[in-house]
Amino acid sequence: MKHEKLKKLVTLTLVIGLTLTEMPMLAKAATTNSTITTNPAKLANLTKTSVSKPSEVPSNIWKYAYNVDKKFSKNGDFALLLCAVIKKESNFGAGLSGSPSSGDGLMQVEPSTRNAYAAKFKSTYGRTYNHGNLQDQVALGGLIIKEMVDQFGGVYNGLLHYNGGPNWYPGCTDSYGRPILADQYANAVYKTYKNYGGKK
After folding, report:
1. CATH code for the structural domain at 59-195
2. Are 13 and 19 in contact (CB under 8 A)?
């Protein structure tokens, strides 16, 4: 019986172009007493991504963010986070025109930070960072955010340190003595991310 289910599973994966690793529910069914569905609607539901492009996010921005998401195998949730950051940092690029920081790009990564991450960018993506390339701007920002999330434990804490830097703490100030309000930044971006359907 299990052999018959496995044969059926292989046939299904060939027909719909998926592998066992992409269809864990079907793989499990092949080794248990579960029934493998051949209902096309049910199969479509199994293969749907759990996220979709938020309506306010421009298609090109979503594409850049989703490409980075795929690189880190985040199943779409990271793309939502990147879009929330891009909205806050540059209003999806619309806020760059005339801004004194327009040269820092979609994700407002300053030159010193870009230089500090140049080697890591190349080892991660296999190419030299090109600041004139919008995809690279999002890829670099994504690399930094992922590092902050991993280092500080969770999306919200990652946002605090993406904005305030890895040494940020409540009440700290910049070189001019001004308070770094990373908590306000994180609150705003995290709210947008959750409104987009973010799960973390």
Report:
1. 1.10.530.10
2. yes
